[in-house]
């Protein structure tokens, strides 16, 4: 019967080897400063005071680089109209417009959106006059609990502006990133079609 050789244990590192490894790490070049390119290639700042322009007003807030735009809006600026549903890009409750394009604010960092034009549901009405999309949601009874409604409305504003509200099927397709647990979908589609008719 052949005997199996038992591998000899790894030699313990000597004190000298540990000190040499530490010195080598210390000699590495310093990490680059905390700036990183945003989507357009411009440098962004952080951590520190981050300017965010929301509904035409510029707010400067002390934000860590990890803070999402959604949390900055709700927790730091106090605009709670934008809702947090899933917080991972699945429900659309957090939809806002950035430079006119709809985005899910839970999926983007606040520092990436400085120097951009952010619009939330609070920025749609003109005084007492509701935006046509807001009015259409009321006319068509496009909500029950209302939790998804700010996101639906912001998405609908972009959907109509994009010209993606030509028929019911098109509206369903281009609003498909916004979920409604109350299942108001037929009324939401009707609201978007009504608003598109008024805005065209
Ligand atoms: S909270 Fe952002 S997609 Fe659900
Ligand atoms: S109205 Fe309740 S989730 Fe849409």
TrEMBL record:
<dbReference type="InterPro" id="IPR012675">
    <property type="entry name" value="Beta-grasp_dom_sf"/>
</dbReference>
<keyword id="KW-0408">Iron</keyword>
<protein>
    <submittedName>
        <fullName>(2Fe-2S)-binding protein</fullName>
    </submittedName>
</protein>
<dbReference type="InterPro" id="IPR036884">
    <property type="entry name" value="2Fe-2S-bd_dom_sf"/>
</dbReference>
<dbReference type="Pfam" id="PF01799">
    <property type="entry name" value="Fer2_2"/>
</dbReference>
<dbReference type="InterPro" id="IPR006058">
    <property type="entry name" value="2Fe2S_fd_BS"/>
</dbReference>
<keyword id="KW-0479">Metal-binding</keyword>
<feature type="domain" description="2Fe-2S ferredoxin-type">
    <location>
        <begin position="48"/>
        <end position="124"/>
    </location>
</feature>
<dbReference type="InterPro" id="IPR036010">
    <property type="entry name" value="2Fe-2S_ferredoxin-like_sf"/>
</dbReference>
<dbReference type="InterPro" id="IPR006311">
    <property type="entry name" value="TAT_signal"/>
</dbReference>
<dbReference type="Pfam" id="PF00111">
    <property type="entry name" value="Fer2"/>
</dbReference>
<dbReference type="InterPro" id="IPR001041">
    <property type="entry name" value="2Fe-2S_ferredoxin-type"/>
</dbReference>
<dbReference type="InterPro" id="IPR002888">
    <property type="entry name" value="2Fe-2S-bd"/>
</dbReference>
<keyword id="KW-0560">Oxidoreductase</keyword>
<dbReference type="InterPro" id="IPR052914">
    <property type="entry name" value="Aldehyde_Oxdr_Iron-Sulfur"/>
</dbReference>
């Amino acid at each position: 019967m052949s005997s199996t050789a038992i591998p000899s244990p790894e030699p313990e590192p000597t004190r000298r080897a540990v000190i040499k490894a530490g010195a080598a790490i210390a000699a590495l070049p310093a990490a680059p400063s905390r700036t990183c390119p945003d989507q357009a290639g411009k440098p962004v700042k952080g951590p520190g005071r981050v300017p965010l322009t929301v509904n035409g007003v510029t707010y400067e807030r002390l934000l860590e680089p990890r803070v999402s735009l959604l949390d900055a809006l709700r927790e730091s600026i106090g605009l709670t109209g934008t809702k947090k549903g899933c917080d991972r890009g699945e429900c659309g409750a957090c939809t806002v417009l950035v430079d006119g394009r709809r985005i899910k604010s839970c999926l983007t960092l606040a520092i990436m959106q400085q120097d951009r034009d952010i619009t939330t549901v609070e920025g749609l009405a003109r005084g007492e006059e509701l935006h046509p999309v807001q009015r259409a949601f009321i006319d068509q009874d496009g909500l029950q609990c209302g939790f998804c409604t700010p996101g639906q409305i912001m998405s609908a504003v972009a959907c109509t502006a994009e010209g993606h509200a030509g028929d019911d099927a098109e509206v369903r397709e281009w609003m498909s990133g916004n979920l409604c647990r109350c299942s108001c979908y037929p009324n939401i589609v009707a609201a978007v079609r009504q608003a598109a008719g008024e805005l065209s």
